Amino acid sequence: MTVWGKTASENYHRRATGMLRGFYRRLATDVPAEPGTVLVDVGTGPGMLLHHLAGSGAELHGVDPSPDMVAIARRVADDAGLAERLTFAAGSAEDLPFPDASVDVLVSSLSLHHWADVARAATEARRVLRPGGRLLAYDFRFVRMDRALAAMRAEFDQVSRTRVRLLYARLEAR
Ligand SMILES: C[S@@+](CC[C@H](N)C(=O)[O-])C[C@H]1O[C@@H](n2cnc3c(N)ncnc32)[C@H](O)[C@@H]1O
Question: Is residue 44 part of a domain?
Fold first, then answer.
């Protein structure tokens, strides 16, 4: 797995997350986050999607394999007064730092195309999700999702890919 370093992480935060504000806003209306929901953003980067979910009352966690991204996510949450609402930890789609059957929603934005081992990610998603829980992975529409869809179908009963706006697609597994 290639881990994003400090410069790449800071550049992503400075250049991309502002432009993606509308995308996060749209996702926040699509993601089932209610009081009591335990939600984990996989490959959270600077954690901006979680900022858009902060008012939901859900328990919100972000994980990322890059320690530099985790540091940025904590700093940005702190600056926004959200340090008490959001937790961030090192972790990857293939290795989630959560106990079995402890998560209601796994969400991911623009990260799926970085996952090195989608079969392991699917097994890991199945492990941490509670019965009835679901995974929602959003990525660019041009990203090939065949391998991820096949891997998810090996673990979940219902797997689908749908278009979101012009540019994005959503992989859902439950
Ligand atoms: C393009 S950024 C997206 C960040 C954020 N989700 C967003 O929408 O702004 C991709 C992120 O995926 C993370 N990533 C890379 N490999 C990963 C993996 N195997 N599992 C989870 N996240 C991964 C990177 O560290 C990076 O933070």
Answer: yes
